[in-house]
Structure formats: structure tokens, C-alpha cells
Specification:
Keywords: Signal. By secondary structure, the protein is an alpha+beta fold. The protein is built from two helices and eight strands; from the N terminus they run H-E-E-E-H-E-E-E-E-E.
Length: 112
């Protein structure tokens, strides 16, 4: 348990530091076997590539995000979707993650 807490703290620190001017954000993805940061382009659908992440499956237990993101169960932003606010999101049961769309906040938004 202590190792998991430390890895999540380190992952959150990486999330804050690694966002670049090139309009990307880093999403922390944790499965039962490992955790890793994934660089995701802003305002564009991004498929979570299982081979690239070396995960045994797309079953995710924790997502750490610094931007508002919509996660999808299918590729190319298809399937069931959930809108997540910035923060750490955990589930006691692994959840399938196929793709993600993170949005840059509207600077001149009329919402109050």
C-alpha cells in the first residue's frame, strides 16, 4: 500500500510538471500491474494503445488528470463515456479504457 501511495504522489507530480506548450496533457493511468503517464493531445480524441503502454489489458483502476477529460470504453471516442473533472479517479473494480478526449478550458466562457 505504501508503494502505491508513493507512486501516485510521484505520478501527480509528473502530471503537473510535464504539460507542455504543444497543447498536450499527461494522464496518469494505473492498472493492477503498473502505473504510467501518457501524453495526450488536447481537444483531440486519443486511443489508449495497449501495446505502447505494455499493459496486459485496458482495465484501469486509477486515472489522474489535470484537465477536464471524457473517457470512452471504445476506440476513437466510441462506446460508453464518462466526463471527469481534474483530480484522481479510482475504482475498486478495473474499468475498461479505450480512448480519451481532454479539453482545454474556454478562456471566455459565459458559464458562471
Amino acid at each position: 500500500m505504501r508503494t502505491t501511495s508513493f507512486s501516485l504522489f510521484g505520478l501527480n507530480l509528473v502530471l503537473l510538471i510535464s504539460s507542455t506548450v504543444a497543447k498536450t496533457t499527461t494522464v496518469g493511468v494505473e492498472t493492477e500491474t503498473e502505473s504510467r503517464g501518457v501524453s495526450v493531445p488536447m481537444d483531440d480524441c486519443f486511443d489508449i494503445d495497449v501495446d505502447e503502454l505494455t499493459y496486459p489489458s485496458r482495465d484501469v483502476t486509477t486515472l489522474a488528470i489535470t484537465k477536464k477529460c471524457r473517457v470512452f470504453t471504445g476506440p476513437m471516442c466510441t462506446g460508453r463515456t464518462t466526463l471527469l473533472e481534474p483530480g484522481e479517479h479510482s475504482s475498486p473494480e478495473p474499468v475498461m479504457l479505450g480512448s480519451i478526449l481532454c479539453e482545454e478550458p474556454e478562456v471566455f466562457s459565459t458559464e458562471l
